[in-house]
Design brief:
This protein is an all-alpha fold. The protein is built from 8 helices and 2 strands; from the N terminus they run H-H-H-H-H-H-H-E-E-H. Strand 1 (194-196) and strand 2 (202-204) form a beta hairpin.
Length: 242
């Protein structure tokens, strides 16, 4: 009598968990990118609405009367043109940086949770601690971070300035703090869509958050690829069911 057909070999649970984790991260990435785009479109629409309202209200006005009208409603104009967009973009920037730091920290927890790395990560995984864990404990190559590390730390500095110092990069700091501030200013001068105002405060332009998210996506995908190749390679299967 012919033997019963063997059941197909299954993917190990740790591999399944990794692939679900990756897919969920991709969904969250798409959600954040969609949020940034929809919100920017809403800000642009609000400013356009104000412009249309201004044209209707000042139809037939002389140049002097139009200027008086703008002076009278300047606070409203400043809100839709400057204040609201900058506050939103600062908030979105902080959210974007937080998403990245959480993404890297979650990789540490995933590796420990699947039993791939025995040593447990720290409870509070700041970016430096996550890098240390992935390199020292998970044995990922440090070169994965070399190219992007200065960029990540400069973005982290800007995020901290927004959260802790109302966006201001100090001009009077000395020593290591002064050096970090000057490095951040140099970074801002070298990047489009982010600037400093007359008070030395960070002004986030429209495309900056999404450009940062694009950089973060590349970094996390490199980490995911390296982790998959080392710990969860394709084609590995657990023993078939009896």
């Amino acid at each position: 009598m012919a033997s019963a057909a063997k059941r197909p070999r299954r993917m190990p649970p740790s591999h399944v968990r990794f692939r679900l984790h990756r897919r969920l991260w991709e969904y969250r990435l798409d959600d954040l990118r969609g949020f940034l785009r929809i919100s920017e479109a809403g800000l642009s629409s609000k400013f356009e609405d104000w412009g249309d309202w201004y044209k209707r209200r000042t139809e037939g006005f002389s140049d002097e009367e139009k200027q008086e009208f703008i002076d009278f409603y300047y606070d409203d104009l400043s809100m839709v043109r400057d204040t609201a967009p900058n506050l939103f973009r600062r908030s979105a920037f902080v959210m974007t940086v937080g998403f990245f730091e959480a993404s890297v920290a979650d990789l540490c927890r995933l590796l420990h949770g699947t039993g791939s790395v025995r040593r447990s990560p720290k409870q509070k995984l700041y970016l430096d601690a996550s890098r240390e864990y992935l390199v020292a404990c998970a044995q990922l190559p440090d070169s994965l971070f070399d190219e992007c590390w200065d960029y990540c730390k400069q973005i982290e500095y800007l995020r901290n300035a927004i959260i802790h110092n109302n966006g201001e990069i100090p001009s009077t700091a000395t020593g290591s703090l002064g050096a970090a501030a000057e490095s951040a200013k140099s970074f801002v001068r070298g990047h489009a869509h982010v600037s400093l105002d007359d008070h030395g405060e960070v002004v986030v332009g429209p495309p900056f958050c999404e450009s940062v998210l694009d950089q973060y996506e590349q970094i996390v995908r490199r980490l995911l690829d390296a982790i998959e190749a080392h710990y969860f390679p394709a084609g590995v299967a657990s023993a078939p069911d009896e």
